[in-house]
Amino acid sequence: MQITPVTAGRSPRVLIVGAGFAGINAALSLRGAHAQVTMVDRKNHHTFQPLLYQVALAVLSPAEIASPVRTILRGQKHTEVLMGEVVGFDLKARNALLKNGSRLEYDYLIVAAGSTHSYFGHEEWAVDAPGLKTLEDAIEIRRRVLLAFELAEKQVLENAPHPTPLNFVVIGAGPTGVELAGAISDIARHYMTRDFHHIDPRQARIMLLEGGPRVLAAYPEDLSASAERQLRDLGVEVRNNTRVTGIEPGVVLVGEERIAAAVIVWAAGVAASPLGKMLGAPTDKTGRVMVDAELNIPGHPEVFVLGDLAAREQDGHGLPGLAPVAIQMGKWVAKTITRDINGEPRKPFHYFDKGTMATIGRNKAIAQIGKIHLSGVIAWLAWLFIHIMYLVGFRNRLLVLTEWAWTYFAVQQGSRLITGDTNLIGWGNAD
Amino acid sequence: MQITPVTAGRSPRVLIVGAGFAGINAALSLRGAHAQVTMVDRKNHHTFQPLLYQVALAVLSPAEIASPVRTILRGQKHTEVLMGEVVGFDLKARNALLKNGSRLEYDYLIVAAGSTHSYFGHEEWAVDAPGLKTLEDAIEIRRRVLLAFELAEKQVLENAPHPTPLNFVVIGAGPTGVELAGAISDIARHYMTRDFHHIDPRQARIMLLEGGPRVLAAYPEDLSASAERQLRDLGVEVRNNTRVTGIEPGVVLVGEERIAAAVIVWAAGVAASPLGKMLGAPTDKTGRVMVDAELNIPGHPEVFVLGDLAAREQDGHGLPGLAPVAIQMGKWVAKTITRDINGEPRKPFHYFDKGTMATIGRNKAIAQIGKIHLSGVIAWLAWLFIHIMYLVGFRNRLLVLTEWAWTYFAVQQGSRLITGDTNLIGWGNAD
Fold first, then answer.
1. First CA to last CA across chain B, in angstroms?
2. From A81, A146, A194, residue closest to B74, measured CB to CB
3. Is A61 close to B62, i.e. CB distance below 8 A?
């Protein structure tokens, strides 16, 4: 379905909400279009989420995986960048309401506000088991992981009577949980030992708790099994069919069992941004907006919902909340708006699956490219190559490559800085 | 004066409080000594303070100017690193009290806890006019500076009736104040304009308020005058003999005058760490501990006070609170303890002034090396060279050099990320 711009002769105003993969790619691909584009985001930066866990584990610095939205889009004269929070929509009057009260009018609205953690109704768990979605999350997890090692060393030095066990519990064995568990193991066994004199790395236990029957459930069973083997090689204790029933400071509850944990990370649940519900269209149980083949909500060919916020089936399967889906949606919507402007008919969105991959640790990964299943070093090299290629900005690619080479060959880590609250966490005699 | 280790035959325990320039250099120089060294700091990292302003102005990332203390000292088997806060001393029993209640015994105590901001009794000003001493301070100032530009752009786009003037007020024209004012000007005039479509860089006013008669008062008058000229070339409004009488949100008061400011930075006063007073020795009016020619407090040849925390005169002048003084003191104390252990007599501390320099902006600096006074590009190149050489760690030197070359030649900036609170500051219609 095609719509005609409201005012003939004027180039249409495209409002993009959210500077994630979908939004940024939509904005970049609208570069040549006869449209006035406005990008609104609460943050000033686009984050390369697939590498967030590397910031959380102190391998990379925040600036290496994030770029200011303005800098990414500065080559585009007809694109405005606004830092602000959208809190509502008036679909009839075609405008979005900002938190400061001002309204942004549009002819086309692209909502790509992404997703956030879901604690399945236990939001109180967030304090003790943070998730990993933003740079701030990554810095917070980094702080907790580094402080856990500091506390462990301190307790040995001070002969603490009841030292905190150096346990790391990751809840949820999706891609993020697997990456985090593998990376914590790498850090504990390879990097940390050289900095600490008293911690025995074998003391560090890394537990990965998964509610379902297998890790990386979105992958075929053989890759899933390979991933679990690779995790065990790294010393990660994988526990499938393990449902967390409670979280307290420093303790994860699994039924009657109480697992002591110096650090708990939540990688189990995802909920769509609340902006989805504000569109007034049907949503699924995680709050994602049901969109048609043109990624529109019913009756509004001028309103698109993209990325993690969109619920869309293809060939009988729901499209996954992955960067490639969001990127393709972003590019597609830009083409579709250009077609509208040129008076050409729209084509439905179709996701082309080039393959997916998940990293597990140093030299360890799995990859699925069509019918080809890869494991181990080859999958890891493919993962490395693709992630560097997709990083926004040449400067970042160069910095990350340098940092990784340094980390890999010097077996030394990048940016183990603790900023913010320096109180040692845990209980006992922390100060 | 020489002391004998408490227990003959056992290598003496050296406790170092503070991992700044003095403490780190003392620890590194004790590498070969027959001593058990313990380093305690509240943070896990040593910060290269002379480059903090570059983090505050989003040129460098925190990880590029800071290194974990453990990593710096990891080559030394007999050196322990503890993250903890010292809250008191028992000089008689020879131990230091940590916040968590445990005590660290010593044979030698080195107190190098540095200094913090002083608001001359107006601590309430700290909220609106943060100072620059720690990485957290730098990240906070970066957040405010970047948000000020975001707000200015937003107000133009939204036709705000009373836009916040894009004024930056730096209070205090010592080295930090001068660096900050010059760097803000560089940013506003060179870097920011390419990212923003609506802000006129000439709107940005940078004011440097100095209570005394001239900028960089520690330097000879001709260099001081040159620095002021170079600042004016950069468009900085220098106001000498200007005493701030009050600070309110977004306003600096100078008597009756009210100066509107999007960002206020405090670089006017320094106070010694409160740990100085806890030693029970005489202190000067800024809280620095008066030390003798062997950097000891009266009656305690085993207690040394170094760096910014020490008040020491030499040739009729007080030693300045600069990195070179702290570094030389740190190295000297290590030698002195080694002499004690070897039964050799002590030699008094003598600061050797190799020259001092202050940077003002791109290609702009002043330097004093003995009787030679340098200004402009040559002084700036010397500054660049020396600051890279003194950065701890080869990796950091490499990263900073790459970043600077990139910034300089591409006229593009490094790490303009806003993390933490993303509320736009100021008043009016900020959200």
1. 63
2. A194
3. yes
- What are the chain A neighbours of B402 within 8 Å (beta carbons)? 398-399, 402
CA distance A24 to A19: 5
Start-to-end C-alpha separation, chain A: 63
B422: closest chain A residue by CA? A43
Q: CA nearest A126: which of A135, A113, A116?
A: A116
pTM here is 0.84
* Separation of alpha carbons A386 and A64, rounded Å: 16
- d(C-alpha B418, C-alpha A14), whole Å: 25
What is the C-alpha to C-alpha distance for residues B303 and A259, in angstroms, rounded to an integer?
A: 46
Active site residue ranges of A: 179
Amino acid making up residue A63:
A
Sequence-separated (6 or more) residues with CB below 8 Å from residue A424: A147, A150, A151, A154, A430, A431, B83
What b-and-e string marks burial along B84-119, b requiring 16 or more CB atoms within 10 Å of the CB?
Answer: bbbeebebeebbbbbebebebebbbbbbbbbbbbbb
The span from the CA of B365 to the CA of A346, in Å, is: 60
Joined together, the tokens standing for residue B53 give 């302003």
Residue from the list B395, B417, B431 with its beta carbon closest to the beta carbon of A63:
B417
Q: Which of B288, B249, B225 is nearest to B425 (CA)?
A: B249
ipTM of the complex: 0.77
**pLDDT at site A77:** 87
Q: What is the 3-state secondary structure (H, E, C) of A295-334?
A: CEECCEEEEEECHHHEECEECCEECCCCHHHHHHHHHHHH
The DSSP code for A262 is: S
Q: Is the CB of A429 less than 8 angstroms away from the CB of B158?
A: no
pLDDT by 10-residue block (mean), chain B, 431 residues: 50 96 95 95 91 85 85 89 95 95 95 93 94 91 90 86 90 95 87 78 88 94 96 96 96 96 93 95 95 97 97 93 93 97 96 89 87 89 79 64 63 60 39 28
